Amino acid sequence: MNMKINHQRQSNKQSGGHKSIGRGVKDNIAAYLFLAPWLIGLFVFTLWPFLNSLLLSFQDTNLFTSEFVGLNNYIKMVTDDPKFIKSLWVTLKFVFVSVPLKLTFALLVAMLLKNEIRGMSLYRTVIYIPSLIGASVAVAVMWTQLFGRNGIINDVLSVFGVEKISWISNPKTALSVLVILYVWQFGSSMVIFLSGLKNIPNSLYEACMVDGGGKIASFFNITLPMLSPIILFNFILQTIGSFQVFTQAFLITKGGPMNETNFMVLYIYDKAFQGQQMGYASAMSWALLMVIVATTGVIFLTSKHWVFYES
User: Fold this and answer.
1) Interacting residues of 109 by C-beta distance below 8 A, sequence separation 6+
2) pLDDT tens by residue, 201-243
3) For residue 264, how many other CB atoms are within 10 A of its CB?
4) Is the distance from CB of 73 to CB of 58 less than 8 angstroms?
5) How would DSSP label each residue in 37-63?
6) What are 44-82's pLDDT values in tens digits?
7) Which of 173, 181, 248, 282 could form a disulfide bond with 56, CB atoms 3.0-4.6 angstroms apart?
8) How many helices and strands, by DSSP H and E, does the chain display?
9) Which one-letter DSSP state was computed for residue 114?
10) pTM (2 d.p.)
11) Which residues on adjacent β-strands are paired with residue 214?
12) Hey, CA dihedral for 267, 273, 275, 281, is it positive or negative?
């Protein structure tokens, strides 16, 4: 009798196990079906172009012919292409100037908007609009009109006796115009800073006031240390994004004047689609990737000296 009961229990366990395995397989199939569009996009539109560009960087390739040239494309960039060196310098200058300015401006605005007053939601929405419209054609046309010789900027400055100039066609000021446009679109960084500011306990500020500290002391001793992980996060995001600036220069300055706004991405585009040098453009793309990796690596290595974690 006991043997029959044990045998029945084992058979029930086995049948239950088979059912659970079958249910698990069905769940996995359903999960992969839902993930399929993302996986297809990852392999077809990300990984394959990524690896294919690496292969192209070792070839002299255009639309019709292809020849393996080894490291010649990379050697040419450094030794026989002064325009590439110029574009690298312009890009680095843009990054090192625009990113700190953008983060500083975003933090200042976030501190002004952190207080809950009447109509604050409307103010935050209006301030975020420039980041929503992005570097569109309409914004480029507006910026061209603003900084043209007969634009509003010159009209305002002429009141103070400043001579009218064409800011966009002047080699000394063209890059500044693009920096101002990039800083103007500070909304995403501002929102991230705003969320970080709201998570700082008010008790810390109260303790600082009790100890006789003012607003400046609380900013440097409480706000910045507590917000430093958010600053690092924003710093990394904006640094990577600024290295890839293309639309602003393409629409407003076309890389000029005298290549003073010829960013690396714009130069890569010119070589790939205007000069039909796909292999050389791919090599420059990988060079840009290495520059971005090196820059972000330096930021991460130095972050241990200025980023504060409560843990």
Assistant:
1) 127, 186, 190
2) 888 888 888 877 778 888 888 888 889 899 999 999 999 999 9
3) 26
4) yes
5) HHHHHHIIIIIHHHHHHHHHTTEEE-S
6) 888 898 888 889 888 888 767 788 888 888 998 888 889
7) 282
8) 15, 2
9) S
10) 0.82
11) none
12) positive
